[in-house]
Design goal:
Blueprint (H helix, E strand, L loop, with lengths): L2 H24 L2 H8 L3 H7 L7 H28 L5 H15 L10 H9 L4 H27 L9 H22 L2 H16 L4
Helix pairs in contact: 1-2, 1-4, 1-6, 4-7, 5-7, 5-9, 6-7, 7-8, 8-9
Length: about 200
Amino acid sequence: MKKSEKTRKLIIEKSASLFNQKGFAGTSIKDIMDATGLTKGGIYGNFKKEGGDKKGVKEEIALAAFQHAVKVVNEEVRKRTFVIENSIDKLKAVVYFYKERVMNPPIEGGCPLLNTSIDADDTNPVLQKRVVKSIEYWQQRIIKTVEKGKEEGEVKKEVNSEDFATLFIGTLEGGILMSRIFKDNHQFDIMADQLIKLIDELKK
């Protein structure tokens, strides 16, 4: 890996937890400099925007940091579910993963989808659009799992995969939000237990 690629990677990795905890407006270039040990020139030199727009550079870093944060979480979940063949068990494994990690998330600050969505809702349409794409990708993965379960005779044919995917994500993210607000696992456990029951109801 080239030195420039290593530097860019360092900026993205260090910025991921900063933006996830402090949000876009709350994270400054100085924060990124302090986290990486790089100069302002070192930051801008790796994230150049046409016309030298400093806000554009920060936005580019935030987008890359968000993508990195989501990728880290996805990879952690995939490690847990990859070896599981049964669709019902695969869905449950995702719930159990979050039960274990809700207060100790893969990226410091909590779920990047939830945090970035709230942070960028009315202030940064570019970031918000990236959140939507990430959630749509997650929905498609759940739909694919449920549809495979139907093909394998594990899931009832009449289950609406799209509706279930929305319910699955909404329940998980709602549980994460409640636990982060009250700073304890109990809030998430209540939601997770209900989600496990819903998953069991998919069984043929």
